Amino acid sequence: MMRACRNTLLALGLALSGQALAEEIVVTGKPISQTAAELASCIKRQCPPDQDVAATLAHAENLFVSGDYKNSRTTLKQSLGRNRKHGGDYPLPVSSLLRANGRIAEHVGEAKDYQLSILDMRDTLKSAFGAEDFRTLLAQIEVADSQAKLGFPDEAERIYRDIERRALAQSQNRVATLARLRQALLLQVRYDDSRSPELRRQLDERLNEVSQRPLQGAEDFALVAEVMRARLDRSAGQATSTEALIRRFAGKAGADRPVLLFAEPLTRIDLSKDRNDSLESTAAWRRYSTNTHGSWADVGFWIGPDGHVSDVEVLRIKGSKDWLKPVIGNIGKRVYAPLRQGEGARPGFYMVERYTLTARVSDDVTGSHLRSREAMPRIEMLDLTPDNYEAPAKIG
Question: Which of 109, 149, 202, 366 could bridge to 358 as Cys pair (CB 3.0-4.6 Å)?
């Protein structure tokens, strides 16, 4: 079996909030040679830290999109060596640099670097703006997200609850609602695993809190709660709530950007169905993780006017592809909101997503304290969709 990230609803919540914390990267459209030259020129003339960081991010993300994860990470590490000390004067650029470093570390399986980068990012903002500033609290949400992803859901829940309490005390209602939704997501994962009636009751109560009694200024988050409820109903074989959301968007002339209404969780993948050899033992899985680590693929697809996905295709791929079949099947089952119709409306949205097959590095997997890959591979995803939502003639 293989784990995969559960970021679909998290990404939707962040998009609706206007606070894209860490779910997307910017596709510059510039060739790597140009972003490399711009960064080198900036360093040579000893440009200000904010300019250095901007050039670094452009080049590192360009390298990432091209599939050069190693040099992308090296570029970020070198920039941190130059700019980390400027966090007091340039907290936002330096925090962005730390966030990007954590994001790439996550994709290459460096869990410790991912965790420390997110903590350093939070601390940089805390030192500059104070513990109760909305930017610090949003960064603290990312800290909790990292705890959840690293397998510490109880600690993540504790942090989310603390953020909710502190945000409410400061009348930061959007931050408080984000924390509430994160708690609901944790409940949803637990409910998916157990189907406990008590967990479903708690989850319904939390979703009702957001959808029926929204905090002032955070009313738009009600949609996220309704989408989560629709997903729960659909997983139980009830499609009426999803259909109601579709009718609502159609009645409002449709969406002018992609709004995901339903996606099955990509939580476990059974490769034995697509492989001739057995991967039943831990040792076999560890060999698989080591041999296939670093495989990635860019998957493109159209969202049609009715919100359904079509033409799912692999645009580029590196390494093994036996893990990708269920990913493509999962994308094809998504349901988006119907699109706005009429003069000037788009015929559809073209989406591009990067999927990376990785396995986390651990210092004590075998008992020898040597760094090696964990036996259980993972799938990480990032949105590479062009700003114009058009199918690219070429990626990279």
Answer: 109
Q: Residues near 86 by Cβ (< 8 Å), separated by ≥ 6?
A: 49, 94
Domain membership of residue 315 as a residue range: 1-7+239-396
Give a yes or no: residue 123 inside a domain.
Answer: no
How far from 395 is each of 103, 226, 348, CA to CA, in Å? 20, 35, 19
- Please report the DSSP string for 299-323 in residue order: EEEEE-TTSBEEEEEEEEEES--TT
Give the whole-angstrom CA distance, residue 98 versus residue 96.
5
Residue 104, both tokens: 């790439």
Give the bridge partners for 3, in sequence order: 268, 378
Q: Report the C-alpha gap between 331 and 325 in whole angstroms.
A: 10
Contact 65, 27 (CB under 8 A): yes
Could you give the CA distance from residue 9 to residue 22 in angstroms, rounded to a whole number?
Answer: 13
Tens digit of pLDDT for each residue in 61-114? 999 999 999 999 999 999 999 999 999 999 999 999 999 999 999 999 899 999
Q: Please count the CA atoms within 13 angstroms of the CA of 128 that sit on its side-chain side.
A: 22
**Model pTM?**
0.84
Convert the pLDDT of each residue in 256-307 to its tens digit: 888 888 887 765 554 544 444 444 555 554 555 555 567 899 999 999 988 9
Greatest pairwise CA separation for the chain in angstroms: 65
Helix (H) or strand (E) holding 88: none
Q: Give the separation between CA 196 and CA 180, rounded to whole angstroms.
A: 20
Tally of domains within the chain: 1
Residue 297: inside a domain:
yes
- 260-262 and 349-358 beta bridge pairing: unpaired
Measure the CA–CA gap between 256 and 339, rounded to whole angstroms: 6
Q: Give backbone dihedrals phi and psi of 104, rounded to 5 degrees, phi first.
A: -70, -40
Is 154 part of a structural domain of the chain?
no
**b/e sequence 283-320, b meaning 16+ C-beta within 10 Å:** eebbebbeebbbbbbbbbbbbbeebebeebeebbeeeb
Within a domain: 117: no
Residue 127: which residues within 8 A CB-CB, separation 6 or more?
A: 87, 88, 91
DSSP 151: T
